[in-house]
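Methods: example folding runs. The two proteins below were folded one after another, and each record is reproduced exactly as written to the output file, sequence line first and structure-token line second.
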Amino acid sequence: MEEVYLGIDMGGTQIKMGLVNGMGELLGTEMLPAKSDLSMPVRLEELVEDINRILHDKFKLLGIGIAFPGIVDYINNRILSKYVKYTDAENTDLNSWAKKNWNVPLVLENDARAALMGEWQYGAGKGNDNLLMVTLGTGMGSAVLIEGKLLRGKNFIAGNLGGHMSIDFEGDKCNCGNIGCVETAGSTWALSHNLKKLHNYKNSSLSALTTIGYKDIFSHASKGDEIAKKLKKRSLEAWSAGIINLLHAYDPEKLIIGGGIMKSKSEIIPFIRKRVNERSWLPEDGVMITTANQTKYAGILGVCFLLKN
């Protein structure tokens, strides 16, 4: 039987699972509905059957790594933040779940940090030990690697809250309770609110949409919609401001930008690079700016790497 690690990336919409061998190679993957309205213990029990089916008496499981979208205690494998999905997640005994069903060790890490580890070992960050990774889209996630070590901090929030860095102390209230966070200007969840704040927004083709995403913003802007152009510019400026703050704080050799929105990287990367060169304390080209390589399975590869090391 081939020895493998199982990585689980628990998104709010989908759960990605992958088997990874000792060389860091993906041997198989599966995508499942998140069912994130369920409690975490119930969803995990449902996953037992799926995991056993994937292993199928062909693989020997050495450990399980979980990437979770929230603040986690990496040392004790506890979820700390009350996430809007996966109710009661913070009360779940993940170690017991892994031991009871497969008698294997478990590693839990924040999804942004897990993705950073995947990029460091197998993607855009390979060969660089000082990295900042930012993911753009629904919100703005971040993670930091300094001298080859993940930055976590006493309360496990260090480097993780780039989207909740305040860039306008007189701005809108964020869903986190802070004022003027990056996400209040640059996130999917804030787009409808920001659209309705604009004068004559009903003249925009965006106003006919039931839900708005960044695919719509970039598409409608490219067709000349002035309101869409304003929303795009506002988001780009917010991301740039947040990223400059993170660059000043952590001074990495490389900035990796990921997220589904990077399908528009031809517009996003040059804009951010221009703002960094104009407004940061870094020397020109003081940081390399690039896109993520492991766009789909970085989190799985990252937690499996943590399991092995």
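Second run, written to the same file directly after the first:
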Amino acid sequence: MDPSRIAAISFDLDDTLWPFLPCLVRAEGALMAWLIENAPATASVLHSPAALRPYRDRAVEGHPHLRHDLSELRRVAIRTLLGDVGEDVRLAEAAFEVFFAERLRVELYTDVLPGLARLSRRYPLVALTNGNACIHQAGLTSYFKGSLSAGTLGAAKPEAAAFHAAASLAGVEPFQLLHVGDDWALDVEGALNAGAQAAWMVRHPSEAAPPTPGAAHGVVRDMAMLCDLLACPE
């Protein structure tokens, strides 16, 4: 990694700036409770929030053209569930809003706000996510120049087009972009293959090991380490 070439930074969101699993568990729990109350026939199949997941898998398999739009895939999954048990599929939108409100409630890792404050004083920052998380709902708007999602772009990491769009939004060339994320294939390999640089966020070192030791990327365990790597002042 060459810090001297970096003129902007893009960030993955889920599991990079906050843990994703608690959001999903809470959102699916709220969705299940709402469905059982408002569409009682769903209780016959919703024995636990995990029972929602096969419906999402069916949506992914049956609608490959929606692979970049996770919100619409979730709506399709809810409509399929409602239809299967004979409930009104028009309830799907209200059910989705219950799910989405909880999905957007995130708890930042404690190092995120101090880190973004340091980095944003030096670099334009851009959010780049394959999901439907939102920097605005997370209270991070002031640190970012903008945000891009696979659903709005029609391209998802690790496609080069996603990283090139992030560089364009930041006002730099791809070779001047550093992308930071937790997923080796999507974030690190994707960024490197797109001509950008990458920092792999490994918050739990015991759970991950670089598939290709010695590759041209940085490895950081938190935002403070990233700031120090880039020599950002306090």
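Comment on the second run: DSSP finds nine helices and six strands in the chain.
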